[in-house]
Amino acid sequence: MKIEDVYIWDTNAKWLGISPFQLMENAGAGVARAIEEKFGRGLKVAIFCGTGNNGGDGFVAARHLSFENDVTVFLVGDEIKIRSEEAKHNWEILKKLDFVKIKILKDSSQIKGLNLEEYDVIVDALLGAGTKGEPREPIRSAIKKINEYSGKAKIVSVDLPSGYPSKVQVKCDFAVTFQWDKEEFEGFERIVAKIGYPKELYHLVGPGNAKFALRKKGEHKGQNGRLLIIGGSEDYFGAPYLAAKAASYIVDLVYLVMPEYSAKRITDPDMILRPVEGKNFTREHLEEVLALTEKADAVIVGPGIGLRDETREFVREFVKRCEKPLVIDADGLKAIAEDLSVLNGKTFVLTPHAGEFKTLFGEKPEGSLKEKAGLVMKKAKEINGVILLKGVYDIISDGKVWKYNKTGNRGMTTGGTGDVLAGIIGALLALGNSPLRAASVGAFLNGLAGDTVKEELGENFTALNVAKKVPHAVKWVLEF
Ligand SMILES: NC(=O)C1=CN([C@@H]2O[C@H](COP(=O)(O)OP(=O)(O)OC[C@H]3O[C@@H](n4cnc5c(N)ncnc54)[C@H](O)[C@@H]3O)[C@@H](O)[C@H]2O)[C@@H](O)CC1
Ligand SMILES: [K+]
């Protein structure tokens, strides 16, 4: 587990309604439990707390330990600096307790002469995951003070040794780290305390994933993604348009490559049209379209492209030669189903529904969420790319892990919402996201846009309504 994942999990946990208060309570209780299990009860315990949430965990641990131990809390820093609601809440409780002693150490001069000989256990809750740079005073002096008792008292760090990874850091007997062992940490013993994250967080896509995917890269036009969409035919022009419309809210530039016959019908000034001659894509368009991909960060191929033999051939040849990350959707999937080897060595997302999945891989996804996910993962591994199986729960896999998405509603069975989805995924790829993240977050945002429409219109709406709610979905995520 990486630090970035911790942030995603926290955000998604909040989305599920798991509050920071619950997490802090479990964290502090976990620390207290670990201490009592290791060293017994009836201990004299000193708890050194900073003013961040690491300190907040210390306040909670103090309350839990106070039931059967003699506890003194040393707050290192000014109490007005206790900022988060959950840390403040727990500090206010501590102040009402008569059996917990509190000492406030505002500056290092108050720390230097401190004698901690009477304590069996010293808890270090000074600094945790929010540490920036070398420890500053008065925290620095507190770390040094604690280390004077190394080998004499038992020293237990909350989450990680304060000061880590700099030179001045607490030398602890062990750290109680939360929920999972973090890969990045080394050089100290760790005990993991679960703090109430459900298993869903391994798989469920939520606003935490989306926040990361939507980070802007630059301030200049074109730096935040250029997407090329190849679609449309004699019969369809709406599908590529819907994909382009949805994407245009996310990336800087969307180029819409369509046969001129259908391109003529698009009048939206937000679109940059790149018409090619004729009514349908054929092999003859290959070089011209490949040249257009050069200035794109990602490409979508398939929406409304039709199923004529010459078009299917175009799609396969195009995929084989395209060097940009690809989203292959709709009729594009049927075209490549005839020869999946065109995907070899490519970076891509396939977006089949169950029927298209069967056409592609000869097997129908059936059974429980886990069973379907197992099949999607197996196939993704075989083709060495990302598959998004669309459904009531969308399932996404890159062959190594699987994710699922629950946003969306029955109204989205209306035609064209798949094109909106492809557009969003393409846009997220163009922003530089991995195919797995682009596909997972694409499914999430598409469903969220659909849910936003539902709030206004009920379940009877069109795909264009959904595309137009993409900015609302993005805003919701960024403000979450
Ligand atoms: N979901 C979560 O994020 C959970 C977090 N928990 C705890 O919250 C901790 C993270 O909390 P915070 O983000 O508030 O961060 P910290 O408590 O680690 O530190 C932030 C505080 O330390 C100060 N600070 C930062 N760098 C410093 C330095 N070099 N020298 C001196 N002072 C410094 C900051 O000004 C701020 O007041 C975790 O380590 C963990 O203990 C737990 O409550 C469990 C859940
Ligand atoms: K700590």
Automatic annotation (TrEMBL):
Amino acids binding K(+): N54, D124, S162
Cofactor note: Binds 1 potassium ion per subunit.
Residues the entry annotates as binding AMP: G418
Keywords, comma-separated and alphabetical: ATP-binding, Isomerase, Lyase, Metal-binding, Multifunctional enzyme, NAD, NADP, Nucleotide-binding, Potassium
Reactions the enzyme catalyzes: (6R)-NADPHX = (6S)-NADPHX; (6S)-NADPHX + ADP = AMP + phosphate + NADPH + H(+); (6S)-NADHX + ADP = AMP + phosphate + NADH + H(+); (6R)-NADHX = (6S)-NADHX
Residue ranges of every copy of the YjeF C-terminal domain listed in the record: 204-477
Any Gene Ontology biological process: metabolite repair
Complex formation: Homotetramer.
Name the record gives this protein: Bifunctional NAD(P)H-hydrate repair enzyme
